[in-house]
Amino acid sequence: MMKNYIFKLVQINFFATIVIFIFSFGAYAGEDNPLSMLQNDEVLARIVNPLDSTCYDWRGEIIPCDFTQRYAGVLYDKPIPVSRFIDNKDGTVTDSLTKLTWLKNTNCFGMMNWECAMQAVKNLKDGDCGPDPTLILSDSSSAGDWRLPSIEELCALIDFSRRDPALPTGHLFLNVPSGYHWSATTLDSYSELAWIVYIESGTTCYEGVYNRAGHVLPVRSLKRK
To answer: For the chain, what are the domain ranges?
Structure first.
């Protein structure tokens, strides 16, 4: 009797272990691959927080694990404009919510490490990001006008209800690559790690500043006329 009980208990534990392993592997694969590779977003929505975890943003503040809205709604206590983005017809896009001007081409620089990204945006100027005339920068900017965005500025662009890219409807950005974009924000506890954003999914994480796998999206403050 006891022998049969132990055998059944082993069977149950073995089955539970297999289920947990399969689930964990699937969740891990879902994080590492673009969400466009998933077969069914509705299935993903149902298992987004299966273990009832507590989720945090880069500030350490608790956020809903199943958040499916625009991140700007969390960051800013003001209405989000219906026509939020303005094409300046000079290789830049202005966000009327944050009053920031972004480079329209999200993949002008290719991939580089964090330090190179910081220097690249400082050197960005009118005439760069060619030769495509629709992407070339023609805003009369000079070296020193542009900078790498903070993690908050990058996150303000994210819309968790969308995928590939997770940017708001009517965002106007071009050439959005898979992979992550650097922010200028490093970890308070370790300056050799910088916060990053996967624009394809809206995921935030951190990466070593010497890793040459990050993309660059320069930003500058709106010029006063």
So the answer is: 53-221
